[in-house]
Each structure stands twice: as C-alpha cells, then as structure tokens.
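Internal QA ticket QA-208
Title: Verify multi-chain structure generation after dependency bump
Assignee: T.L.

Test input:
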Amino acid sequence: MKRAFLGEFEEVVLLAVAILDESAYGVTVTQEIEQQTGRAVGFSTVHTTLQRLEEKGFLSSTMGGATAERGGRRKRFFAVTAAGRKALQEVKQVREQLWSALPPQTLQLMGG
Amino acid sequence: MTPTPPRFADRLLRFFCDPYLLEEVQGDLHEEFAYQVQRVGERRARWRYWRDVLGFIRPLAGRSRTGRSQTGGSSFMKRRQRNDPSTFFLNAAMIRNYVAIALRQLWKNQLFSLINITGLTVGLAVSMFIALYVWHEFHYDRFEPFADRTYQIVSVAKYGDQEVTFSGLHESFGRAIQQQIPEAEAVVRFSAGLGEVVLQSDQNHRFKESAIGFADQSMLSVMGLRLLHGDAKTALSEPSRMVLTRQLAEKYFGAQNPVGKTLIFDKQYPFTVSGVLDDLPTNSVIQFNGLVSLNSMPALGARHQDTYQRTGFLTTYLVLRQGAKVSQVEKKLDKVKVGVNFVDASAKIFLEPLPTLHLGGHGDGARNERQSLYILLTVALVILVLAVINYVSLTTARATKRAREVGVRKAIGGQRSELISQFFVESFLTTTLAFLLSLILLQVLFPWANQALDLHMDKRVLTQGPYWGVMIGLWLSCSLLSGSYPALLLSGFRPALVLKGNVSSRQSGASVRRVFTTVQFTASIGLLICSVVLYTQMQFLRTKSLGIDRAQVVGLRIDGDMVPQFSGLRDKIRQWAGSENVAVTNTQLFTNNIMTYFLQAEKTKKQLMVNSMTVDKPFFAMMGIRWQYPPMGWEAGPVTKELNIYNQTLIKEAGIADDPRQQAAPFKNEPTDGVVNDFHVRSLHGPVSPMRLTVVSDTNRTMLADGGYILVRLNPQTNVPQALDHLKELYNAHQPTSPFDYYFLDEAYNKLYASETRLMQLFNGFTGLTLLVACLGLLGLMTFTVEVRTKEIGVRKVLGASVAGIVMLLSHDFLKLIGIALVIASPIAWWAMNSWLQDFAYKIDIEWWVFALAGGLTTGIALVTVSMQSLKAALTNPVKSLRSE
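Actual output:
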C-alpha cells in the first residue's frame, strides 16, 4: 500500500475518535462531528471512513456494549492506534510549518 | 409504545448488507433513530432513517482492498460468493474497461459501426415519430377539466336499412336539458359555424375566414380553453361578443391586445373582441378559429336566424354530475326529446364520452382510423425489429473476431456473468448513441414530416411525461433485445477451443442469421407489395372515368347576396371564355357537403338517399354528362320551366323500366323530365348515389339564394395563373361583397382521397426505410463473409475459378433467402391489401405482376448491394490474399 495519506474528512473522523477516547463508535462519532464542525454528515459516510481508516491501520476496533435502544445489538468501538496518532501528529506538524512560513503582512491581511 | 424504525428499510438493509457488518451498522442506525425521534419527531426520524439506509447502498463503491477480513473492504454490499476476492461484476473499474473496449471496437470497425448505428437511428427515429403520432391520436380530449364525465349527445335514426348518426341538435334541446335533467352539471352547445364568413377590422384587414363558431359561455371553462386575454366567465355571456384564437387575433390586430376592439362580422354586424385564446390543443375534436356568443346568432341576418330557429346544427355536450348513471340519463333524454322541435321522434339518443369521440363513436370512419393506426404501429415495430436484427446478426457474425478476446478473458478468470454484462454494455452504448442521434433527427425533421404528411400534430406532446416514459422504455428494451443474443452466444464459447482457433465463423449463429435475413426481406418485400398496390389503386382512382369531365375546370364562389350582380358577371365570363365553357351550379362538387334528401319511392316504397343539386342548362354539355333520355325539346331552345332530371341509379332503385318520361313519377309530384347516365360527385369509396338534378332557366335567381358556383372550363393551353387573374379582374369589376374565391375540380377530387394519399406516402417512406435497413444488414454480412473467405477465394482463383463463378458462389446464398422471403411475404401482403381494397366500391385486381415487380426490385437492389463486395473479392489478385500468412 502507498504511504498512508490522510484525507480531510478522514482527518476529522480520526480526530473525533481521539476526542471521544474510549466511547467512539458510529453514532457518537457522527454526533461529535456534527456538533464540532456544524456540518451535516451522512451515517454511511462516517461508517465508510471509519472502515477505511481501520484498513489503513490508523484505527483499531473491538466489539462490545449492547444497549436496549439498539435492540440488543453490540457496538463497534474504535480506538486510535500508534500509527493513527503519528499520522495526526504529522498532519498537525505540516499545518503549523505552513502557517509559520506565512509572511507576517499576509497574516495581517487575513485578519490574523 | 416506543416508535420503531421503518420495517421495510430494515429488511432492505438486511438484504444487501454484508452480514458481518450488519450488527454494528443496524445497531448504530437504531440508536440514532431513537435519538432523532426525541429530537425532531417520529416522522422526520423515519425519513432520516430511510436516507441513511439508502446511503449504504453503493453498488459501485466496492473497491477491493485487503481489509480486516476477506469479506471486508469499505463496501457494505454483500458478496456473491463469500471468501472469494474477485470483484463484484458491476464494478466501476470493470465497467470502465468494458466501455473502453466497446469504444475501441466501434472505432476499429468503422463500417460495421456505421451500419449498426445508422440502422438503429433510422429505426428508432421512425418508430418514435410513429409512436408520437399514435400517442397523439389516442390521447384526444383528455385535457378538459371534466373530460371523464363530459359526453356528446348524438341521435341515431334509421332510414330504410341505413343508420344515420346526427350530432347536430336544435338549440332548444340544450335548454330543455338544463331545466329537466338534474344530473346535468353543465351543458355546452357549440357549432363550428356555417361555412365561410367575412371578417373585417379595418380597410386593410378584410378576409374570408372559415370555422368561426358559435358557443355558449360555458364552453370556455368546461372545455378547459385557456384565455391569453379577457375573462372566461363573461367572454361569451352576452350578444355581440367574440373570442379569437391567437393566430386570428394577430392577423387582424397584430401584436397589440385586441380585447375591446371591434370586428365586423359578415360585412355588417359589429362585434366586440372579448378574449384571445391560446393555441388550441391539436388533440381535440373541438376545432375553430374564432367563437361568437351563441345568443347573438338570431340577430345575424336571415340565414343565421333561420338556421338557429329551424335546424339542428349544434353539437351539444353534457357534463354529468359525479356518480350519475349514463344509461339513466339516456333514458331521460329520450323523454326530453319529445318536447323539443326538429328532432326525429324515432331517433335514439346516445351519450358518447368526450375522449372516445375521436376514435370511437358511431360510424365506420372511426373504425378505419383506428385500424390504420394499428397498421402504422405494426410497421413501426417491424422497422425497429429489423434494425435490432441488423445489430444482432452483425455482432454475431463478427463473433470469431471477438472469440479470442472472450477466450483470454475466460482463461484469466472472467466469469460468464461478467462477459454477459460486457456485451450488454456494448449494445447499450451503441443503442444510446443511436437513440441520441434519432432524437436529434426527430427534432430536426418534426416540422417537415408534420407538414409533408399533413399530420396536424402538436409539438407540445414532446414535453409530456408519459410520452418520455414510452421513449425510454423503447430505448431500454432496444438495448436489452439487441444485446441479449450476442451476449449469450459469445459468452458461451469454451476458452480451450477458442484459443486453439477451432470456432469457425460460419458455424456460430449462421442459421440464426439466415432466419434474420429472411425476416428482413420478408418485411421489405411485403411492404413493397403494399406500396405498389396502393399506388396502382390511387392511380386507378385518379384516372377512372367518372362520367363527368373534371379537367381544367375552375369554380368561382358566388355569395348569396351577389344575386343582383350575378347575371352581369356571368355574361362577362361567358364572353371571355366562350358560352359553351361556362356553367352554373349551387353545389360544390367533390365534397361531402352535397345536399341530401330522404325520399320514398312511390312504386317500391323504398327510402332513398337522394343527392340533389341545381344546375343551369349548359352544365350538361360542358361537364360532359351523357343523356340517356334527354327532356323533350332539350336542343330546341332555352329552358323555361324547372326540369327534374334523374340519374340511372335512381330510376333503377325506384323500379322504373323502359322510358321513364312516359311513366309515373318516381316521387310524388316530381315527374321525370329526363335521365342522365350515372356520374360521380363524391369519392369512389361508394357507388353512385341516386341523384336528382334540377335544371333552372338562366334568369332564375333562386338557385343562388344560398350561394353557388360559376364553373369555367379553361382551355388546355391556357396559362392558369393569368386566367385566374383575369377572372379576378372580372369578378372585382362587379362590386363583389366578398373576396375572390375559387377551387379546382380536379384538386377537390384528389382531396377526397387525402387519407389514402397520406397512407400511400407513409408506406412509400416505410418501404424505402425497411429496404435501406435490410440492405445495410446485407452489406454488413456480405462484407464480413468476404473478409472471412478471402483465402478461400484466393485458392479458388489460383485453381482457375472465373470471376462470375466466384460472384455466384458468394451471392447465391443470399438470393435463395430472398426467394424464400418472397414466398412468405406474397400471401400475407395479398391478404392485407385485399382487405384494404374492400373499402372501395371501385377497385383494382391484384395481379401477378405486382409480386413479380416487388420480387424483381428487391432482388435487384440486394444484388447491387451484394455485388459491390463480391465483385471486389472476385477481382482481387489472389497473390495479395495468399501471400501473407
């Protein structure tokens, strides 16, 4: 597989999983993203992305925790792996590097 | 009770979702649902649930990845075979590959692609056009707001053994219905007018108009006619109000809004324009150019008043209340009828639903119309099938070329289902191309075809949803049909055999192709025979001696109020044309508006339908009508008293033998003064009707009371436009009250066969198209055969075969098929045309040469098609074909 590349939405999902720590699964991740970013996301999109991130090795998952409102069905909890943390770090680093390379007058123009 | 998510959505999810993922996905969905129910309510939560479930269905999203398990991957779709990593057969990558291969194939075999696409385009365009026409015809009068409970009242009366249908009713009938029948929600009385009438807005805008109708004010709302200007409620409510169609309004008033302006009706009656109608839908039996409020009619002069008070001239429509029983209302109408004047008491009253008026209804005309629509539909289907057959036979013929590809695909693990879908994609691509091309063709040719075939069709049909449904159905079924046989045949090849090169091109589907070619030529020959028969019958009708000489005769219309000027005008025309070339009659010949009386023969007591017209003395000599028994003293001098002249048929029907002049009168008080040989004044669909000619003296003016015609025979050498100009000058010199108006007798006669002429034109077109499609197919097959047999032909030539021998070898297969086609097509075409001819009282016999001609022509065309390729093959130097191996 090519060097794992983190798409914009993938990054958001990965961060959401990291924020939720122990309780990250389909529903909570979707709600978290909606609350934090204010954008409406489809269930299937989140699920697909979660799966893809797992394939890429950024997430790991375990089954467990059934509740009544799920009709007794189990949840799949996701957790960020070491590779996932590293990927997030890399992304953040790249961003900061880019920001710091911004000439100060441009920053002012942007209202920063 | 706690609300549950939509059951069906759940089932759908279970159906397609990978069972490995089902639990967590469904769990999440249920949890979210429970949350959303509290947040936004159950109804919207259900909507969201559906949307989410549908979001998981992504047939094309399945990219194969090595995931956490063999069945994993980021698709939620079920795999066909678990633990099998092969791609789903509707996989995006594979479809891209199919399309690429298909495009390459199209590009590589340009001739075949051209033949295929041309054939399909023509087939689709023609069948779409016909579908459009038939759709239009079958969807008459559906747009009215109460179309499903609007009925026309007709009365059917029996005269002798003839049933006659009258749709015209007296004006009091409609009023009586409104008073006496509670089930009637609305009554509309409408008449398309009493012939032509002059309208005038100012000096420069004065024209003769036809179809200026009369109607109740309920007409506009009941019939759903849309007004561009004016108020539908009041537009026709008062006398002296008039509604124009847009076309007419623009003719008189240009672009400005004409409401409130004045238009002079019939030279002296001012009308106020109270509304302008949008173009009338063409699929309606109600057609007119302008409408005058019915209650103004009695004030429009003696003729209108007389018609209004004493005749049944109004088509009366009835809107029944919801739930009213038609049969009960019919019974009540029978009672109403008794109290109304001018309705035959013996006639039975029927209610005809408005939408069925065009093609249903009483009388034979409608049945014929329906029949010819079905014929058209069949022909369209035949052309389409031929085009599809072309595709199939050309594709299978090239099977060998594709066989290796199929072999390789299978050898490296292609499934049969994948190959099938590949060939479907190919056929889909070709038909889609053809479909788009034919849509363009249709758009371009629509106005032309509409005019050339004299089909009054509305382009608005093109925007209707159901019509597009039909079109898309046509397109999809076309793709499926043309793709299925090649797909099944080609995907069935066994890779081992194919890769060894053991599949012979001549085996794979050869017999099917033979059947296809035969079918194509059967259709072509059949249609050709029909065309030839149609043409000969029309030629026969045009040239048949009618007993009346219609060549070069022009009829000038003289209005009823021109009686004072008439004698002077006639004498001037006589001076100019020669008195033997001028005659006068009160009737327009070769139309269906010839006065008809029902008279009872004195002797046989038979009811006779007698055509009746009034003529002057020169009429007989000038129109070439022969005497059987001329009146006493006919040659001696001018006619002084009215003479009754009958035709042979009438005398025979009345049971009179020998010289009728010496015997009792056929009808009461109408003794026979003379008898003429039969002659036709109507179409040859029927035999000559009994006829009475009243001959009046030159000075008699009653003849022109309702208007009449001066008939002038022009010299065969005359320059017709000049002669017409001269006649117009003469006419205008006599203070005419209406514009110059004329018709040619032979044109009028030909117009009687307008529907047959149209059928003939359509058939000619279709025959050409089927032949084209069939020949395209033949050309393709022949090119292919030659390609495959190049080596064989080379060897044969080296061994001494002649060019003629090789051409024969290549062509005789096809010629045999054409022979078979001729044998199949002839009896079918004979049967069809024979039943068509039964509608004519005068008809040709279908002779053997028709079949010979059709067969010969088809064989000739096929030979030319085939020989282009076979000659090329036979003439090639064998060195060329044998050198490379």
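Spot checks passed. Chain B has 26 helices and 24 strands.
Status: verified.
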